[in-house]
Each structure stands twice: as structure tokens, then as C-alpha cells.
Amino acid sequence: MGLAMASKLLEASRHLEASGILEVSGLLEVSGLLEVSGHLEVSGLLEVSGLLEVSGHLEVSGLLEVSGLLVASGLAPRWGAKRPQNLPTRSS
Q: Distance between CA atoms of 3 and 26, rounded to whole angstroms?
């Protein structure tokens, strides 16, 4: 039960910057080791609408950059699962 769960020690030994929009309202579970080898930068708003539990090893020492809008809210729609039959084609 939570948004981010890890099973080791929280270690933020690099640069963590929040200045974009990152919204998480689903379930993210990490039951091992999460390692990012560089720099975690989010250019917007970081919003966590749940329980954030970190009891593992989180290391940031790489490069992860988000310069747009990332929204995760449960299930994503399956675009392209059904295609309308009355679309015009280029073969005419």
C-alpha cells in the first residue's frame, strides 16, 4: 500500500530538482534496488497523492530529465485497440 516502496536504505547523494509537472496517483512498488546513475531533474510540479514509503536503497547518480508533463493515474487507455472502419484510405 503506497506509491513508492523500496526494501533498502534511502540515499540521495546527488542533485534532485523539481521544476516541472510529475503527477503520480497510482501504485508504484519497488521491492529491490532502484539505482539511477546520474542526475534526476523534473522541470515542473512534483505531486504525490498517496503514501510514499522508502525503506530501501535509492541512489541517484545518472541523468533522468523530464521537461514536459508526465501523468500516471492508474490504467492508461489502450489507443489503437479498436480502429473505426469508416476511415478514408490513401489507396483510392
A: 7
Give the per-residue pLDDT at 20: 44
Chain-centroid distance of CA 9 in Å reads: 20
Average pLDDT over residues 10-18: 43
91 part of a folded domain: no
pLDDT tens digits for range 42-67: 554 555 555 555 555 555 554 555 55
Does 41 fall in a domain? yes
Question: What are the DSSP calls for 38-55, one per residue?
Answer: EEEEE-B-EEE-S-B---
> What is the spatial order of strands in the sheet that 69-72 belongs to?
46-48, 21-24, 69-72
3-state secondary structure of 76: coil
β-bridge mates for residue 44, sequence order:
20
pTM (two decimals): 0.15
